[in-house]
Amino acid sequence: MPTRIGPVFISCNPGEQPPRAGMDERKKRARAIERRLAKAYPDARCTLDFRSPLELLVATVLSAQCTDERVNLVTKDLFRKYRTPEDYALAPPGALEKDIRSTGFYRNKAKGLRSCCRQLIEQFDGKVPDSIDALVALPGIGRKTANVIMGNAFGKTTGITVDTHVRRLANRLGLTRQADPGKIERDLVELIPRSKWVSFGHRMIQHGRRVCKARRPDCRHCPLDDVCPRVGVEGK
Ligand code: SF4
Predict the structure, then answer these.
(1) How far is residue 16's CA from residue 30's CA, in Å, rounded to a whole number?
(2) pLDDT per residue over 208-221, tens digit each?
(3) What CATH number is given for 53-152 in this structure?
(4) Which of 63, 67, 75, 133 is the most exposed, having the fewest neighbouring CB atoms within 10 Å of its CB?
(5) Where are the domains of the chain?
(6) pTM for this structure?
(7) Which atom of ligand 1 is found nearest the CA of 207?
(8) Is the domain 23-45+160-227 a CATH 1.10.1670.10 member?
């Protein structure tokens, strides 16, 4: 019988937060969560298809507000047609937009990819830099995308990717009280050992997709049941 770490938080007010656990307790809970997720999702990995840092950069930009499955469908043809930053930067007006249309927000995404690739050509000799600071300085590349590229294309651990799933789960699990992804990442890196940052991000995302969904978290079948305070989860 597993020992519960910390109490379940029960409130009639969905906006109410439980008393903040101390650092030691949060660390203990975070480690337990990390171990459970590792057991539940041993093979969790980046679900975007790519063969180079440039392909991962493009796929990650396209994945905003879009499923990875849809992005993989689109990039299957896109990556045959666009092989270098020049191909994106010099694509005829409307062509790139048409090729990425089904990923949504295609005008903004095409604009972002064009300016990003222009900067890669001008400043980095057409190569994606393997530095988090250089990546976040590129147009349209935020810290989430930069962490994805560093961890998955370059095998370098620079932080924890905080997407919409990680943001939701980290709050429900009582690992943060922040809404801003940068602040959530700062809280998580304090709690999770550095060697686990990349895999922890993948596993949280997988758990958010499969079990701890936004509208109907399946708490009854959740491997984190006894370590989760379920902050903000209605009906608990
Ligand atoms: S599914 Fe329920 S128990 Fe599991 S992590 Fe989400 S809120 Fe917690």
Answers:
(1) 21
(2) 999 999 999 999 99
(3) 1.10.340.30
(4) 133
(5) 23-45+160-227, 53-152
(6) 0.87
(7) 5
(8) yes
